[in-house]
Amino acid sequence: MKYTPSDFNQGLCQFLDASPTPYHAVASLQTLLEDKGFEQLHEADSWGQLNAGHYFVIREASIIAFTLTGDDLSNTGIRMVGAHTDSPCLKVKPKPEKVQQSLFQLGVEVYGGALLNPWFDRDLSLAGRVSYEDPQGQIAQVIIDFKDPIATIPSLAIHLDREANQNRSINPQLHLPPILAQMDDGDKLDFRALLEQQCRQQHPEINIGRVLDYEMCFYDTQKAAVMGLSADFITSARLDNLLSCYVGLQSLLAADNTRSALLVCNDHEEVGSQSVSGAQGTFLQAVLQRLVDGNEAYQRMVEQSLMISADNAHAIHPNYADKHDAEHGPLLNKGPVIKTNANQRYATSSQTSALFRQLCEQNDVPVQDFVVRTDMACGSTIGPITSSHIGVKTIDIGLPTFAMHSIRELAGSQDAVMLHKVLTAYFNQK
């Protein structure tokens, strides 16, 4: 199926709005997969010898979807794309309730390397996963989303901080607790009781008892949008890295199924990936090992496989062009970016970059390069982690983005369709 940028971005915006947390992102991906006939597998079940077909597996807030052709993977390998489901945010603490100056607030932790200034003066809501006890004493989980704007973090007025525009500092402990309500003397609010009420409203079909625990995140309620005088840009929360998750999935769904292909979207990339569902965990390796018979077949499969790690790249900012190496400043709407780092913060090698560059040329898609300034530190991705853990040849690529890790990011409205075209061809390539 051929997409115009308008068609593709409409679906992307819907996906972004439906995915305020990694748990919701996985649920959104699951819905899209099931609509296309993918069958869910469970790690606790015996899979046996899987037939040619379409499958997916979920572990926590990570998901792996794959298509098998019936060919011997030890001879053909498998084409893989990796992305991540998490984004920097404010997570609610276990004992969060605060009442100060008759205002009800919730204590928060900063998740990941968040750009904190843009979190002020936004209409915030809450979403996440809740663990509850049912009437039989069993523990189960549901995901919820308040959806309505229920909180805000007001800025301090300029009159009380005359240096705010020159030297504003944020103490996360003191300055970030959002305000949710005004309280009368003697009033008390229990956050778990509030979650219990919300769970019952959103899941009336479930007999929900008391809430035991939760993973709840604040998020901006402003919807994703295509904007600009000529609709050149797409703006949203969580473009890093739900943009890559969506493009990867649509490419897997559009593939012609002549070659075995896989998409992995891991949680916890923003905090180092060291978790049961992160790229440093066993999820991808455990799934791959179940697709072939024995260690030798597994090693042969990996050697003939390739991984594209897709994570957003830093576009050159017109107001801060000096923050880039002049020859390696990606532009919006000029195609995907090959990310390279001599110190292996990206997994790209000359071999894998040559393959991707050729693939882009064959599909009439422009390709760009990013290398961080030599005098600046370089971030990283799941690419080097997956490459070293699995032993698979890997390239790091991404789409140019402004305001990465802000509560609202900006990307080009044409780039996602270009990457979709390349990744679909990659999944089809013999």
UniProtKB/TrEMBL annotation:
Enzymatic class: hydrolase
InterPro entries given in the database record: Peptidase_M18, Peptidase_M18_dom2
Thylakoid recorded as keyword: no
Cofactor requirement: Zn(2+)
Domain of life: Bacteria
GO molecular function: aminopeptidase activity
EC numbers, comma separated: 3.4.11.-
Pfam families from the UniProt entry: Peptidase_M18 (PF02127)
Keywords: Aminopeptidase, Hydrolase, Metal-binding, Metalloprotease, Protease, Zinc
Record CDD domains: M18_DAP (cd05658)
Gene3D superfamilies: Aminopeptidase i, Domain 2, Zn peptidases
NCBIfam families noted in UniProt: PRK02813.1 (NF002759)
Assigned protein family: Belongs to the peptidase M18 family.
Name the UniProt record assigns to this protein: M18 family aminopeptidase
Organism of derivation: Methylophaga marina
